[in-house]
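Lab meeting, action items carried over

1. Structure of the two-component assembly. Owner: GW. Status: complete.
Input record:
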Amino acid sequence: MVKQLRAARTRQALVHAAAETFADDGYALSSLPAISRRAGVSAGALHFHFPSKDALAVEVEGAARRSIERMVAERRPSAASALHLLISVTGDLLAMATTDVVVRAGFKLSVDPSRKNGAGFACWWRTWVREQLLRAQHQGELAEGVSPDRVAAVVVAATVGFEVLCAADRDRISPQHAEHFWTLMLPQLTPHSDEFAGLALSES
Amino acid sequence: MVKQLRAARTRQALVHAAAETFADDGYALSSLPAISRRAGVSAGALHFHFPSKDALAVEVEGAARRSIERMVAERRPSAASALHLLISVTGDLLAMATTDVVVRAGFKLSVDPSRKNGAGFACWWRTWVREQLLRAQHQGELAEGVSPDRVAAVVVAATVGFEVLCAADRDRISPQHAEHFWTLMLPQLTPHSDEFAGLALSES
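Predicted assembly:
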C-alpha cells in the first residue's frame, strides 16, 4: 500500500516536472534526464513509469484534459445553461493558466511544431467549446443569426492565444482577460447578456 | 550587378526556406543543412549570408515585421481612421497567415519556447495594436468606458491564436475569421459599428 502510494507520488512528480520542462523549453529540447532531475527521481524510476518522452507528453496532455474535465464537472451543477458553463469554464481556464503548469503545457504542446503526432489537445478543446455553443443555440440562448461554429473559432483562438502568450509572458496575462473578452462578445451573442456579467471571474 | 542580384535571391530563398522549416518543425529541430537543402543552395552559401541559426531566425522575424509594416503602409491611405486601419490590417494578417509563411513563422517563433531570446515579434504586434486603439480613443471612435489596453489584449490573443492554430491546422482557419471576430466585437467597441462592416475581409 505504502509502495503504491509512493509509486503514484513519483508518477505525479514526473508529470509535473515534464509539464514544466515542456512549457519552458518546448518538446524538442526537453530531455528525459532533465525531467527526472527536476522531479528528484532516478532515471530508472522515470523509465519504469514512462518508456519514452512521447509517453510522458501523452500523459501531460491527458492530465491537462482531465483537469479541465474535472473543472467542468465542478462548474456544471451551478451553471444555469450551456452559455453560462462555457463562460465560467473559460474564466477558470485563464485563471488556471497562470497557476496550473499541466494545463498550460497541454495548450503549448498542442501548437508546438516539434511535437509531432500530439494528442490534439487544442482539437479536443475546440470540440468541447463548439458543443456548448450548439447546446446554447438549442436552448435558445444565442441571438438569431449567430453561428456556433464562427463563435467557437473565435473563442478557441482567443483562449489558445491567451494560454500561449501567458506561457511566453506570464506577468502580462491575467484571468481578468476572460471577463474582458466576454464583456466585449456577449451583447452580440445573446439577447440576455446582462445575466452573464462577472461569470468569467473565477469564483473559487 | 548580376552577382548582387543573385546574392539577394539566394538570401531570399534562404529566408523563405528557414521560415518554412521553423513553422513546420519548430526552432529547436530546424537544422541549417535542412534549410540550405530546402532553399536549394550550398551550406557554404548559407554560412556566407547567415553565420548561425539565430541569425536566420532574427532575419525571419524582421522580414515578418517588415511584411506587416508594408501592409500597414498600403492600407493607411484608404483607412478613414485608426479603428478602420486596425480592422483591415488584422483581416489582411489572417489572409496572409494562410499564404505567407514568413509572417506565420514570425508568430510561431514568438511563442516557441525553444527560441530563447527571440526578437519579441508578438510584443511588437501588441504595441502596434495598442497604439491604434489609443489613437482610436483619442479620435473619439471608442465607446465610453472601453479600455484600449483590455481590447488590445483580446485582439492580440485572438490574432496570435488564429496564427498558431492556423499553422497547426491550416485547413480549418480562414481569413473570414477576422471578419467574424470583428462582427462580434465591434458593437461594444464603438457606437459606429455599422461603418466597419466587411472591412476585415481582404480587399486585395
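2. GW to write a short summary for the group page. Key points so far: The mean pLDDT of chain B is 88. The two ends of chain B are 33 Å apart (CA to CA).
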